[in-house]
Structure formats: structure tokens, C-alpha cells
């Protein structure tokens, strides 16, 4: 598709530029004036209402339930699928106040990502960490392939009647936007927890939507009323002073 093609052309241009400027294999650059327009795509995520629906959904198939829990775990932590599969007990630390920290170097960016686990994420870990297959493998979760998980997520999507395709990336985006940013977590903190090397990557998730506008506008009308009262009172004070005889 358009963006995928643009990415390939960008990489091809990089090679051609190298051939012209660095090693001089080419005299002219045929790609010099060609631009690669990338269409900005809106990151799909679950709204809080959809997240609650998914939490309450129960399936007869134990594997489907397991995939649902893996997806929810990513919604609570922002971990990519490969990071979830790589989790081991050595990645967890306990503070004296009872806070459970998960500290893992992200496989994609090799950036340390410390995350204090939410209660919902801790419940999921305790549910699966003692499964014999996971214990034998030395991991928290039993292994599944990404392709198989995505097939199961399509079944979950249809059962929950969601209007967006469920993938593990959707869970990661849900953590960034619905769980973190919309609940007041600073974007610099989200960047660290998401394992991004550049904050510009995290800014993609900070798009403004109708719900964000409503949240930001809460109390504005009341503040305007209070300020209007103060201004009117100042007008009355000035008027009284002007009416007094000299």
C-alpha cells in the first residue's frame, strides 16, 4: 500500500544517495528530486468502554482466553508481543512498599523499560506463571506464535463486536493513549515505559480527540463565571469611587 511503498522507496533512495555521494558509483542521482509522501495514519486503540467489555468477556476455549489475557496484559503494560513472550521472573523487582517493577530491555529498541505493574497486570502474571510449560521454558507465559495469536484476536474481535481489527499493536497503543496519557501520565514517562528512543515517536499517540477536548474543557465555564464576577465587582468599585464628590 501507499505507506509501505513509500518506506521501500526511502530505503532505496538511501542506497542510491550512498552510491552517488560516498563511493561515486553513479554520476547522477535519479532519485534526487523524488519525494516519498507518507500519509499520516491514525493509531487504532481501544476506548475504555471497549477495554471493559473485553475484560468481562469469557470464552469456552481456554486458548482463546489465554490470548485475551496476553492482549490485556499488553494493554496494561505497553509491551510488544515479543517482549511479553520473553518475560521471565528475573525481570521483576519488588519495592519495600509492595510495588512490583518490571524492568526489561525492549527487543526492538534495546532500551531499558521500567514499568510499575498495575494490579490487573499482576493478576494475569499470577494466573499463568506456574503453568508447567512456562516454568520449563523459564518464562512467565507459555509460548505462542504471533500469527496464531493474531488469528485468535480476530475471533475475539468478532465476539466483542469491535469495529477495529485487533492486533498486538492495538494493545500497545491502548496502553499509551487510553491507560496512560488519558489518565494524566506525562508523555516523557510514557516514552520511557514504551521503550521509544525518540519522543517524536511517542507524540504520535498524543493526538487530540473529542474525549480529550471534553476533558480539557471541564471547569472552563465555571472559571469564566468566577472571573466575570470578579471583573464586574471591580467595575462596581470603580463606579462607586467615581460617584463620590471630590
Spell out the blueprint of helices and strands.
Layout lengths: L1 H21 L25 H9 L5 H16 L3 H6 L5 E3 L5 E6 L6 E5 L2 H10 L3 H6 L8 H15 L7 H13 L6 H8 L4 H5 L6 H8 L2 H24 L3
Antiparallel strand pairs: 1-2, 2-3
Explain this structure.
The chain has 12 helices and 3 strands; from the N terminus they run ααααβββαααααααα. With 246 residues, it is mainly alpha-helical. Strands 1-2-3 form a 3-stranded antiparallel beta sheet. α3 packs across α7. It is extended. The mean pLDDT is 85.
Q: What general form does the structure show?
A: extended
Order of helices and strands: HHHHEEEHHHHHHHH
* Alpha carbon gyration radius: 26 Å
How many H/I helices? 12
Structural class of the secondary structure composition? Answer: mainly alpha
Mean pLDDT comes to: 85
Whole-Å distance between the termini? 81 Å
Q: Which percent range fits the helix content?
A: 55-70%
Name the beta content range.
5-15%
Largest sheet: 3 strands, antiparallel
